[in-house]
Design a protein that fits this description.
Pfam families: Glyco_hydr_30_2. It comes from Paenibacillus glycanilyticus. Helix content is 25%, strand content 26%. The two termini are 33 Å apart. The protein folds into two domains: 107 residues, Sandwich (Immunoglobulin-like), CATH 2.60.40; 340 residues, Glycosidases (TIM Barrel, Alpha-Beta Barrel), CATH 3.20.20.80. Helix 9 links the parallel strand 9 and strand 10. It is built from ten helices and 23 strands.
């Protein structure tokens, strides 16, 4: 029987019955995050401090906003100043800390640094550093945008200097700013062949053998500098299938050089396979980057991006089962005229003006209520996910629905609740995280899912 969106999940669209089973789940969920490239570079330079604080609260404060607790800090390469005009997109010109060989500029990247520290002040407790490209003077093409042909762009004699560059930045942040990056990734979508000179963002291709080389050198550099709090993560490929392909190609020494598998989930189908490989190798697994802009023209109320976001989160939590789920840019460039991101501001003017998008409220349906430390529970419905927070005694269910109204009855199973009602939150075409009350009868509750909506049910005082 075909369920919602035509999925064969054995459920009807009306009167579906789902039992929540605590044994069907996984522990170790660390939370939700965002990369700071490229918006941190922009927002951190705003002169309007009040507007800066508003943005920081909206993204990182658990009470006032999304409560994202994971940050990915981009160690910029820094473009060649002789390349004119600079082809990098607004915000994409992240300054590097080593503008030329032997010269360090620790005052660089002030904007992203401000955002990083402001996020941690608001409760962000896990930080990862990553690189999109080596500094321009280490590259073959002389540009951080990629090689002429999209191939390897790091000079042969610069593999050790590049590892030293990354780990020196990590050391500086620890010594000077008290920021201990838990992981460091020298790669970003490295097997992709679209990193070509003249690109609008930093990027670097690394073939399989070169990935292994830089991973091992980065791990060795961390050890030599006594940076024991920081481990290497890899490889951050664009799709889970590409990530799995690279991992299958790594030798044992390379595997022993990193502690965490990072994958993007823009594409690919082998989510369960990569999860099983991570378990087999004893590696933590992160979904370290995903973003979407839907299929409609620029519109802050766009629902196609909301549906794609909700479906991606639920699918990843059910099948990939990552310890962390990280969105690309929480803040996107309004001048790009697309529907990516939770908040839009014009990166070109930096006047502190911003607008919320519908995706912001869709993300809130998950991140505000499924908190770090929760046990993620998968259900017999690919459009729903649940989570139990034992510390808070809170059970949360999130469902998304694309077309037509749908009714689902959830059975709490062995969960015992102390309240006769739950809180319901919904984001739809006409609603933004609207709160209502939902009755619980005989340990079950029924939810009417509106078309084009994301619905969250939060039950307090729940025990097992």
């Amino acid at each position: 029987m075909s369920g919602i969106n035509g999925h064969d999940n054995g459920l009807t669209n009306e009167g579906a019955f789902i039992q929540i089973k605590p044994e069907n789940g996984y522990d170790g969920f660390e939370g939700w995050g965002t990369s700071l490239a490229w918006w941190g570079h922009i927002v951190g330079q705003w002169s309007d401090r009040d507007k800066q604080d508003e943005i920081m609260d909206l993204i990182f404060d658990a009470d006032k906003g999304l409560g994202l607790n994971i940050i990915r800090y981009n160690i910029g390469g820094g473009e060649n100043p002789e390349i004119q005009p600079n082809t990098l997109r607004p915000g994409g010109d992240v300054p590097g800390f080593q503008p030329e060989k032997g010269i360090w500029n620790w005052s660089a990247d002030e904007g992203q640094r401000k955002v990083l520290l402001a996020a941690m002040k608001r409760g962000a407790d896990i930080a990862e550093a990553f690189s999109n490209s080596p500094p321009y003077w280490m590259t073959i093409s002389g540009s951080v945008t990629g090689a002429e042909d999209g191939g390897n762009n790091l000079r042969e004699e610069c593999y050790e200097p590049f590892a030293d560059y990354l780990t020196e930045v990590v050391k500086h942040y620890k010594d000077v700013h008290g920021v201990a990056f838990r992981t460091l990734n020298p790669l970003n979508e490295p097997i992709s062949n679209w990193w070509k000179k003249g690109n609008i963002q930093e990027g670097a291709h690394f073939s399989l053998d070169k990935q292994m080389e830089i991973i091992k050198l980065t791990a060795r550099s961390l050890q030599l500098k006594g940076l024991t709090e920081t481990a290497v993560s890899a490889p951050d490929e664009n799709s889970v299938d590409e990530t799995l392909e690279m991992l299958h190609g790594y030798d044992e020494e390379t595997f022993n050089s990193f502690s965490q598998i990072n994958t993007h989930s823009y594409n690919g189908v082998q989510l369960e396979e990569i999860r099983m490989l991570a378990q087999e190798k004893g590696k933590k697994l992160w979904m370290s980057e995903y973003g979407t802009g839907g299929t409609e023209p620029h519109d802050h109320g766009d629902m196609t991006s909301v549906m794609e976001l909700a479906e991606r989160i639920i699918t990843d939590l059910r099948l990939l089962q990552p310890a962390a789920w990280v969105y690309w840019q929480a803040v996107e460039d309004e001048s790009a005229r697309n529907n990516w991101g939770f908040i839009h501001t014009d990166f070109r003017h930096g006047d502190g003006q911003y607008e919320m998008t519908k995706q912001y409220y869709a993300m809130a349906q998950f991140s505000k209520f499924i908190r770090p430390g929760s046990r993620i529970l998968w259900l017999d419905d690919r459009d729903s996910i649940a989570a139990y927070d034992e510390a808070r005694k809170q059970l949360t269910v999130v469902a998304h629905n694309r077309e037509g109204q749908r009714q689902i009855r959830y059975d709490l199973g062995p969960f015992v609740h102390g309240d006769a009602a739950a809180k319901l939150y919904r984001t739809s075409e006409l609603e933004n995280l609207v709160e209502a009350e939902l009755s619980i009868h005989s340990n079950t509750f029924t939810v009417n899912l509106e078309a084009q909506s994301v619905t969250t049910v939060v039950i307090a005082n729940v025990t097992l």
